[in-house]
Amino acid sequence: MTFRGRTVALLIGIAIIASSLLTLAWLNISGSDYTMQKWVDSEPLAKEGQGGSKGDKSKEDIPEDLKKVFETYRAIKENYFTKVEDEELINGAIEGMVNSLKDPYSTYMDQKASKHFSESLESTFQGIGAEVTIKDGKVTIVAPFKDSPADKAGLKANDQILSVNGESIEGLSLYEAVLKIRGPKGSVANLLIKRSGSAEPIEVKVVRDEIPIETVFSSTVERNGKIFGKIEISQFAFETDQHFIEKLKSLEEKGIDGLIIDVRGNPGGLLNTVLTISEELVPNKGVILHVTDRNGEKKTFNSKLDGKKPYPIVVLVNEESASASEILASALKESGDYPIIGQKTFGKGTVQSTVEMSDKSSLKLTIAKWLTPKGNWIHEKGVEPTYEVSQPPYFSALQLPKDKVLKRDMNGPEISNLQIILQGLGFNVNRSDGYFDENTEKAMRDFQLNNNLPPTGLLDKDTADLLEEKLRIKLSDPKNDNQLQKAIEVLVNLTEKK
Length: 498
What we know:
Helix content: 25-40%
CATH superfamily of the domain at 216-391: 2-enoyl-CoA Hydratase, Chain A, domain 1
Strand content: 15-25%
CATH architecture of the domain at 216-391: Alpha-Beta Complex
Number of strands: 21
C-alpha cells in the first residue's frame, strides 16, 4: 500500500473544509469499463411498450444489476414534462447511490467541487477556516482552524450550521452547503448556529479571510528549572511531518526535559503525514495503527524509532481532535505509555480514498477502518484521556452581537453567552441562563466603568468589541489554559521521578 505522492490533502479551498478527515489516496479510474457517459452515448433503448430486442446493443452492454438505472434515465429523458440535462440526472444518480451508504465521509464531488478540492492543495485559501461534516443530516463543525475567522468567532466542535446569510442549507449535500459558506476575503457569512445545550439557535457573524496553511508551531515552557518543548499541530497536511521534524530537532538541540504535543482542534489529515511523525515518537518500533479493509485483511504500521526518547512526552487533546490526531494520540498512549490530557476526542476511525472520474468529477469513499495498537476501534467513541481536564466555560464563548443592543429583561442564548464572558472576566453575574437581570446589568456597568465607557448597563457595539478584546487576551494567557497547565504538571512529576 503506497501513500506518499498519491495522497490528497484534506483542505478544500472552498472556504470551509469538507469532511474527509483521513485520506488515503487519489486514484484514477477513467479507464473503467462501465461509465455513465458510455451508457448515455449508446444506442437508444426500445420505445415504451416495445420492450428490449436482440438488436438492442446498448441494453445488452449494460450489466444486469444496472439496467433499471438506465431504464429510469431513459424514461425521464423521454417522458418528463420538462427537459432535464444529462449531467443533472447522472450526478443525481451518483449522489443517490452515495447517500444510500449513510456514511458522512463518503461523498460525490461534481467537476466544480472537485476543482475546488484540487485547488485547496495550495498554501492558502479563502474562507472561514473550519472542518465540517454531515452529522444526523445537519452540516456540523468538526473543528475550526487555529486563529481562523471561525475560531475567532467562537465556533466549536459539533456546532450545527442551519443557515447562511438567511438561506437554509438543510437538505443540501455537504459540498452544496460548503459552496454557500465559502466566499472571498472580506465578505461576511452570517451563520445561524445550533449548539448543544442551547435552547435556541445563535447568530454568528464571520468575516471570511485568507487562511494560511501553517500547521506546526513550537515554543518552550519553563517550570521548576526545567525546559519543556511544546509543538502544536493544527492539521496533518503536506509537509507537516517535515516541519514537525525540523521543529523537534530544534527543541532537542536546546536540551528540553520533556515534550508537549498539542493536537487540540486538529481535525486530521493525511495518513502518510501522521505515520512519519509517529515513527519519530513511538518507542521501540512499536505499533502505530492497524488498517483493516472490507475483507478483514489487516496491515500493521510500526514505528522506526529504536529505543525511546530521552524525555517524557504528553499529548493534549479535546473533542475537536479527530482522525489522524486520534491515530497519534492512541499510538503514543498504547504503544508508548505516554499520558493523554484533555477531553475525549471526536471519534473517527475510518479511512477514505478519493477516486477521480474521467470527466474530472470525483468520488470519495470510505474503504477501510483503522484500529489502535491494541486493536480498539475508536469510531464514534473517541480516545479517552489519561487525565480528563476541562477548560473554563468562557473558552466556549461565542462572538457577541454588534448589530443590536442587549438590555435588562431580555432573554435568550446571546445573553447567556454574554453572562459567561462577564463571569470569565471576573464580573459577578451569578447566572448564565440567558435572563438579563439586575446583576447582569450591574456587571455590565462595572465593566464599562473599569474600561472608560459610558456606564449604561447595555451591551452596545463598543462594549461588545471591548469585551471580546479582553476575552481574547485572557484566552491567550497560558496560565488560564487548564489542560496545558495539567500537562506541565504531569511533565514536572515525570522528570522528578527519573
